[in-house]
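Researcher: I'd like a structural prediction for the single chain below. Treat it as a standalone chain; there are no partners to consider.
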Amino acid sequence: MFLFICTFVSITFMQAQSGQPLHHFFIGTYTSGNSEGIYKTVLHADGTLAPVELAAKTTNPAFLAATENGQFLLAISEVSPENSAGMVKSYRINEEGLEPVSASLTGGSKLCFVGVNSNGNVLGASYSDGTISSFRIDKNGKLTDLIDMKQHTGSGITDRQKGPHAHSAWFDPENNNVIAVDLGTNDLWIYALDKTGKLHSADPPAVSMNPGAGPRHLDFHPNGKWIYVMNELDCTVSLVKRSGNDFYKLAASYTTLPADFKEKNTCADIHVSQDGRFVYASNRGHNSLAIFKINKKDGTLTPAGHASVRGKTPRNFSLSPCGKFVVVANQNTGNIVSLRRDALSGQLEFVDEISAPKPVCIRFY
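Model: Treating it as a single chain, here is the predicted structure.
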């Protein structure tokens, strides 16, 4: 019996080392050009990537979200013209790819984000008109019609902030709050989410970022106390701290760029490592991932360098579920890059790359 177990473990280890499948992920794209929709591929145990395969034909699935049980994938349809209502689509994940289940209109224009939590609540963010939409998904993957929609108001100080532009909406893992990130108003809008899927404005209703920052995405530290916000326009990462259960406060901001870089740049995506030790943020222009070390006592950040993404316009990236790799979608060079992550230093080392048509979202499941 002992010999059998040892043999089995040995074989499993050798398979993992030889490039057997480790993590599967979907790729969201823009379907202008040669893209047809959502693609899928595999990250192997050694960090190499399999060629992409088409999983579902659909228009502009520019952002994706997977249910916690790995059974369903949600995809937006970022439609044109900008005053057209966006659509969220749900798919059943199977071995062949994706099986369409349902679709719901968001009510907002130019949908750019979708998120789902373990309770089946679904959020959408619409950029053009600055609205947040609420839905639910049932155990069979079917989406409800629109339950609630909130309209943001206000503006910032830059040309891209002349009105509200909701860019993402996140479920706070510590409570029933939703944090909606609005680039146009320059705020994080805070809502309480009730059991029916309705959104209720908090008091105060929003947290302002530094003038002209242009917040886009965020991620939560595993300890539940710190939130890191990616600011697209001024190319900074902001630390937001929770005070009590429902109050949030801007604490500090850090540039994502080297001091000697003077060319045009905008930021896109941000992720905290699962071990809570590092923050990674994407630069579109410098074409890198900025690396920050997190102070475990107070959440402040120390710059730890930059890693080239070996392509142009890293719109989205994701850490592998095992935490050993970072996978980057380079929109304007049509390539996906795998980087090995050093858990002690946080540094990233190139492993592999593959071609993909206009990739803009990476979603492991």
